Amino acid sequence: MVETNLSRIIDNIDTVFRGDAWHGPSVMEIINSLPESKLKEKPSISKQSIAQNIFHLTAYRRFVIEKLEDNIHFRLETDEENWGTEEDLNDPVRLKENLLSTHMTLLKKLEEFDDSLLNRNVPGEYYNFYTLLNGLIQHDTYHLGMIWVLWQ
């Protein structure tokens, strides 16, 4: 397979998510190591719990998928859309499964495109897909750090 800019970005998205990242443990390595009792704790240093951060990682992937499907109107506007409801956060297994499934859907969707995607504007936004996809990598890294801090 010929490496392209998009294929490198896809690889970086998956590396930060599933493993072998230069910065240390990946998103799933940390999440799979967490004791379930820690998921819903609300430490004083953050408004969000670990469970809410996991939900948010899923929500941001849904945002990217919707934009790849040309949904100009899709937004994550409310706290519930960004951080989940009590019901969304109650089942740790479902929370993790939803994140993994949404990640796999995103990778599959991205494989439908070529490098021309990177210069296209994101529907309804002022930036292009290059910025959005690199932002996803940065977003994952930031929330991975938050999850790590909240776990300690």
From TrEMBL:
Q: Where is the DinB-like domain?
A: 29-147
Tell me which InterPro entries the record gives: DinB-like, DinB/YfiT-like
A Pfam family that this protein carries is DinB_2
Q: What name is this protein filed under?
A: DinB-like domain-containing protein
